Each structure stands twice: as structure tokens, then as C-alpha cells.
Amino acid sequence: MKVAVYPGTFDPVTNGHLDILKQALNVFDQVVVVVAQNIGKHPMFTVKERVEMFQLAVENLARVEILASEGLTVNQAIKLNAQAIVRGIRSISDLENESNMAMMNRDLAPSIITVSFFPSETLKHISSSFIKEIFKFGGDISSHVPGPALEAFLEKGK
Ligand code: COA
Fold first, then answer.
1. Quick one: which atom of ligand 1 is closest to the CA of 130?
2. Domain made up of 3-156: CATH architecture
3. Interacting residues of 36 by C-beta distance below 8 A, sequence separation 6+
4. Residue 13 Cα, ligand 1 centroid: separation in angstroms?
5. Which pLDDT value is given to residue 105?
6. Is residue 144 flagged as an active site residue?
């Protein structure tokens, strides 16, 4: 069975992330989304909230599991018997960071490969930071995030 982990901060999950996930499901038998704490970021939503909104967003998708991160992504991949880490590359600027992360993960665990997917043309400008900023200033984010993420924003914003 081919298993991949798809790690990210997902603060919040966007339609761009779902696009990458669906592409990965064409290649892997199971994809485990790993929602990271990410010590370098100050997320708007807790890990629990991000796991919950992702779970609701993939309710209709089979072969997907959503978990909270437990330390290093490669260790979690090994623990889950995954062979690969899935990442999305939207632009040249993503590429530099993604290639460094892929090589570091390969140093840490040579048996785990990184597989990158490219988002659909209409989704490549989406980022979680843009979504948060647009929401904060009263803009419409409904076409960029799945319904459960929109609901989570409305709940927080109350
Ligand atoms: N569509 C829309 N947005 C996308 C996207 C896509 N397809 N792919 C990435 N993004 C956005 C994210 O929304 C995020 O936007 P933001 O910076 O505005 O918040 C940005 O691109 C990158 O975020 P993300 O994909 O969540 O990656 P990350 O850099 O936040 O996550 C981890 C990095 C969590 C995967 C990595 O730090 C990790 O594995 N941490 C666990 C500890 C570990 O193993 N560290 C060693 C790493 S070598």
C-alpha cells in the first residue's frame, strides 16, 4: 500500500491545499494530513481547530486521515509506514524553500521521498496569510476556502 503524509500548518486549510490533496490521492492509496504546530508561526487557529476544520472539509473524500503533528514529519511518516511526504509548489519562491526542506528531510530519513505537486492555475495565488488578511479587513474569502474553514472564521470573528 502506498501511503503519503501531507504536512502543513493549514491555518486555515484552503482550496489550494485540497487541490494538492486530491492530486496526491491519484497517486497514493492513502494520504495522512499532518497538521503542524509550526513553532515559527503564530497561528490564528489551534491545532485542534485546524484538524477539525480539515476533517469536515474532507468528509466526502475516502482514503484520507487528518492527524495532529507529533514532532518531526519524517518520524511521523515512518511511524505511519508512509513512503512519501507530499508538498505543493505554487511558485519559484516556494521552490527554494521546498527543495531545502525536501533535502533536509532526506538527510533525516533517506527512505522517505518528497513528492511535489503543482496546484491548478486558478489556485496558485492562494495562501493562508492572504486569506486571514482579507477576512480581517472584511473581504470575501468564500471562494478560496472550503465551507468548514469559512464557518470557523465566522465563529472566531464573532
Ligand atoms: N495552496 C494554498 N496555499 C498553500 C499551498 C497550496 N497548494 N501550499 C502551501 N500553501 C501556503 C500555506 O497556506 C502557507 O501560507 P502562509 O505562509 O501564508 O501561512 C505557506 O504556503 C506555507 O505553508 P505550509 O504549506 O503550511 O507549510 P509550512 O511551511 O507552514 O509548513 C511544515 C512546514 C509544517 C511542513 C514543516 O515545518 C514541518 O514539517 N514541520 C514539522 C517539524 C519538522 O519536521 N521540521 C523539519 C523540516 S525539514
1. 18
2. 3-Layer(aba) Sandwich (3.40)
3. 7, 8, 9, 47, 69, 73
4. 11
5. 98
6. no
Strand order in the sheet with 113-117: 64-68, 30-35, 3-8, 84-88, 113-117
Domain range list for the chain:
3-156
Mutual angle of helices 147-157 and 47-57, in 10-degree steps: 140
Classify 102 in phi/psi space as left (phi over 0), alpha (psi -120 to 50) or beta.
alpha
pLDDT in tens, 102-115: 999 999 999 999 99
Nearest alpha carbon, ligand 1 atom 34: 8
Read off the pTM: 0.95
Please check whether residue 144 is in contact with residue 15, taking contact to mean a CB–CB distance below 8 angstroms: yes
Task: Answer yes or no: is the C-beta of 75 below 6 A from any ligand 1 atom.
Answer: no
Question: What are the CA-CA distances from residue 62 to residues 42, 58, 96 (Å)?
Answer: 31, 8, 32
CB contact at 8 A, 112 and 83? yes
Atom of ligand 1 nearest to the CA of 89: 8
Q: Which residues of the chain have pLDDT under 50?
A: none
| Ligand 1 neighbour 55 (Cβ under 6 A) | no
